Amino acid sequence: MVFQAEERAKAKKQQTDTAIQLALQGRWDEAVGLNKAIISRFPADADAYNRLGKALTELGRYGEAREAYQKAQEIDPLNSIARKNLSRLAIVGKKMAPRRATQKLSPQMFIEETGKTSVTMLLRPKMEVAARMSAGDEVNLMLDNGSLVVGSTEGEFIGEIEPRMAQRLIKLMDGGNEYVAAISRLGDNDVKVFIRETFQHPSQLGKLSFPPAVTEAFRPYVKERLIRQDSPDEAYYDSEDGEDWETSRDSHEAEVAVHQFGGTPGRDQDSENEESDEGEEE
């Protein structure tokens, strides 16, 4: 009996790891099939229902995704992943077209550098568009009647950069600077984007794209937890406050930080419990 239980647990882990890899590779149809297979063997696996909901969402099958998340919530009423995704799905329609494949920026692009990177909350966010995206998805910076707006790769309006930052970036872009941007955080009613300067034109030498605030510390470090989560298990689940790619700050951390992207698919709550247990032992 013990041997059978161990073999069953081993098989489940292997299937779970494969399901995660399928998601990371954007193979959503296969991810749907595998997660359904896992559920058929382990019907009380809330994480499998969450992964199924994510895959169905990526395919634009929002009604089915909603049912998957509802099932996860029935199994685990305190499941924050299911709750937040149900809130997001309430924004989008049941029969909207499948979202197109999106380009995700490499985690290395999210290494923070003072003066070259910044995170900003968008004004006038269009949540029905943002709700179909994920943290890490690349977005476009576009000029619109003197304003700098953020749009999807299909040109859909997502939100607007706040005026002060926008005017500075517009001048630098006119001078030849180049930038990339991606979704950093998706909340219930707000969207943050991460912006990085990728090229500084010689005429703009010495001009910082994002001047640091007087109180901002210089932080050189790379957070190990981010590296573990983004490679290979890039998270497509949410943090407690929303889907994000953000860095937590410690008093001893200085200069270069790496944006943290959500949690590990299907493993968030277990890892939180492990960290909590470690803290109690100390």
Could you name the key traits of this structure?
282 residues, alpha+beta, Serine Threonine Protein Phosphatase 5, Tetratricopeptide repeat, Alpha-Beta Plaits, 2 domains, seven-stranded antiparallel sheet, disordered C terminus
Short description:
This protein is an alpha+beta fold and 282 residues long. The chain is built from nine helices and seven strands, in the order αααααβαβββαββαβα.
Would you kindly provide a written description of the structure presented here, covering whatever features stand out?
The chain is of the alpha+beta class and 282 residues long. Helix content is 39%, strand content 15%. The model is unreliable at 220-282 (pLDDT under 50). The chain has two domains: 2-89, Alpha Horseshoe (Serine Threonine Protein Phosphatase 5, Tetratricopeptide repeat); 107-244, 2-Layer Sandwich (Alpha-Beta Plaits). Helix 1 runs antiparallel to helix 2 (28-41). The two termini are 36 Å apart.
